[in-house]
Structures are given as structure tokens and as C-alpha cells.
TrEMBL record:
Record's protein name: Nitrate ABC transporter substrate-binding protein
Source taxon at top rank: Bacteria
Gene3D superfamilies, per the entry: Periplasmic binding protein-like II
Keywords in alphabetical order: Signal
Claim: Metal-binding is one of the keywords in the record: no
Stretch forming the signal peptide: 1-31
């Protein structure tokens, strides 16, 4: 008998184990010299791995004459990330453009959350082990798709975007009922092991590539087919943190820009960093080959985020329509030239 998803969650240690590291209790605004960063899973967070490994925030803080204490936490899902940011548990949030647009929309005129930078351009794949599912039109009650957060994660929003293209805007959430919130590492393990009701995963690298190494898993949907090359994952913060901690914030911005240059120009060293920081059990040569994929770009400049913003406004998922991508990105000393 196939396991239910509740048994699956218990067997792979969901719940409290989603937090790797420790989140500090909600507190008052931090003084200059401290920053708390929440990230998730996958190569898309490689720039943060580089920042952490090379102590780049501390380096750029010293250049401004301050010592910066950096704390790191790991969560799964945009909802958990947004909750941590709004509760004051973290200062910089790493999550998909979907969660960013949700929190930007809900905090306008209050916390005024906006994006700080992109983490790069990467294709995200919806993969399945069900041979009958060739396109999203083939999905049925027999299918269960893992996403980081149901309805709001960038994977969920991309699935909604695809559904709207297939069946019209009024049915944009038609496939939500087939999705389940499961962290990428656990979803990949469950998909490959079989024996559960989970037979699909809207993933990110390297997890989607690990799944595709199995001959029984195939691509159903490629995010680049929907939006073109795009920046699916961003870093964001509240306006208050940015204003109250200008030197710390600037050190972070400079650090992430330096990390992007490093990762884009030295893929082997970037792969070593990923393995070292995350303790990933992945073959080094395979990882280097993966991140050297010409479809990947490590950059802080956002690309093709506005199409999703327009869509979410059009279907009523957000109440405010941004005039352009610049409405939900902070424009700092060196303004980003994105889309």
C-alpha cells in the first residue's frame, strides 16, 4: 500500500526539522553591525554560500569601519521565509519571486518589503515519475506534486501561470489541489524511492537534475518555456532595516555582488564552495558540469520578473499592480538594470 502524505511527512522528518540552524526570537530593530539571513535549498542560493564561505559581509563591513555579526538560518518555503522576515526574526530573506511579490503587495505603506538583488537566472523543472503525464494537461487526481509552499512559492506561481496559459486566467489555480509542501531534498528522496503518493516535484537545481538521473523521471514543464530566461529567486528586506542599518545593508549588497562575480567566473571554485558549505553529497565533476550550464547565470541583476508580477495582479493574487519591476526592487547607489 502506498503511504499517505502525512506518513510521508513523518517518515522524512518534516515539521520542526524544516529549520536548519536557529532563528532568534523576534526582537526590536537591529543596530548597525548585525544581520540575520534566511536561505533555502539548492544551487540557486550559491551566492549566499560564497558570501558565507568567504566572509564577504564582514569584509565589506570592515571597509566601512564596522564589525558585522552575521547569523544564518535555513528554512523551506516562501511562506516560512516571509513570516520570519515580518516577525523580525531575520533581516534578509531568500525566496522566490512569487513570495516576494506577495509580501511586497501586503506590506505597501507599512514594512515596505522590496527585493535587494537577484540570485541569478536558472530554469526550474516540473518533473514526474508518472509516464502518463507528458504535459500539465495530463495531471489528474493520481498525481501529487511537491512544491516548497503551496500556492505562493515561485514553483506554485509558475504552475499557475502555466495553467492560465492552458485553460485561461479564470482557472489559473486549477492545479493547486495536486500540490503538497515538501522541502526539495525530501521531495527528491521520496520521488526517487517511490512507494508514496508523491510522483511529481516542481524543483530547482541540483535536485531536479538528481531526479532526472533516474530513467523513470522526466521533465513535464520548463520555466524558461514560460518566461524565457528569468530570475526565480531573490533576496529581500524591509525598508526599515535598509534605512536603520545603511552600512550593514551596503556591506551585504557589496558582498552579494562580489559573490556573483566570483561564481560566474570560477565555476570549479563555486562548486567547491557549494559542497563545502552545504555538505551536499554530490559528485564534484557533475556539479561543475551542472553549474557551467550556459542556461545558468550568476548575477544580481533581475531578469523577466515583471511578467509574473503582471500575471499575479491580473488574476487577483496581488492587489497592487507594479508600474515596473523597479516598484518592488530597492534602487541603491548603483541601480540595477533589470526586468
Amino acid at each position: 500500500m502506498r503511504k499517505s502524505i502525512s506518513r510521508l511527512a513523518a517518515s522524512i522528518g518534516l515539521g520542526a526539522s524544516l529549520v536548519i540552524g536557529s532563528l532568534v526570537a523576534p526582537a526590536a530593530a537591529q543596530a548597525e553591525g548585525k544581520i540575520r539571513i534566511a536561505e533555502q535549498f539548492g544551487i540557486v542560493y550559491l551566492l549566499l554560500n560564497v558570501v558565507r564561505d568567504q566572509h564577504l559581509i564582514e569584509k565589506h563591513g570592515k571597509a566601512q569601519g564596522i564589525d558585522i555579526d552575521v547569523e544564518w538560518a535555513q528554512l523551506s518555503g516562501g511562506s516560512a521565509i516571509n513570516d520570519a522576515l515580518l516577525s523580525g526574526s531575520v533581516d534578509i530573506a531568500g525566496a522566490g519571486v512569487g513570495p516576494l511579490l506577495t509580501v511586497w503587495d501586503r506590506t505597501r505603506g507599512r514594512q515596505n518589503v522590496k527585493a535587494v538583488a537577484s540570485l541569478g537566472n536558472f530554469p526550474y523543472y516540473l518533473v514526474s515519475s508518472n509516464p502518463a503525464v507528458k504535459t500539465i494537461a495530463d495531471l489528474s487526481d493520481k498525481d501529487r506534486i511537491a512544491v516548497p509552499a503551496v500556492g505562493v512559492s515561485v514553483q506554485s506561481r509558475l504552475l499557475q501561470y502555466a495553467a492560465a496559459q492552458q485553460w485561461g486566467d479564470e482557472q489559473y489555480n486549477r492545479l493547486d489541489k495536486y500540490t503538497l509542501a515538501v522541502p526539495h531534498p525530501d521531495a527528491t528522496a521520496a520521488l526517487l524511492a517511490g512507494g508514496t503518493e508523491l510522483n511529481g516535484h516542481f524543483s530547482n537545481p541540483p535536485f531536479q537534475d538528481q531526479a532526472l538521473a533516474n530513467k523513470n523521471v522526466h521533465i513535464v514543464l520548463d520555466s524558461y518555456d514560460l518566461l524565457g530566461p528569468n530570475s526565480p529567486t531573490l533576496l529581500f528586506a524591509t525598508e526599515k532595516f535598509r534605512k536603520d542599518n545603511p552600512k550593514t545593508y551596503r556591506a551585504f549588497v557589496d558582498a552579494i555582488a562580489e559573490a556573483a562575480t566570483f561564481a560566474q567566473n570560477d565555476k570549479a571554485a563555486a562548486a567547491d564552495t557549494y559542497i563545502r558549505v552545504t555538505n551536499a553529497k554530490i559528485d564534484r565533476a557533475s556539479l561543475i558540469k551542472l553549474i557551467d550550464n550556459p542556461r545558468y547565470e550568476f548575477t544580481v541583476t533581475p531578469k523577466n520578473t515583471y511578467k509574473l508580477a503582471e500575471f499575479l495582479y491580473r488574476v487577483g493574487a496581488i492587489k497592487h499592480k507594479p508600474a515596473s519591476w523597479k516598484d518592488y526592487f530597492f534602487q541603491d547607489e548603483h541601480p540595477l538594470q533589470g526586468s
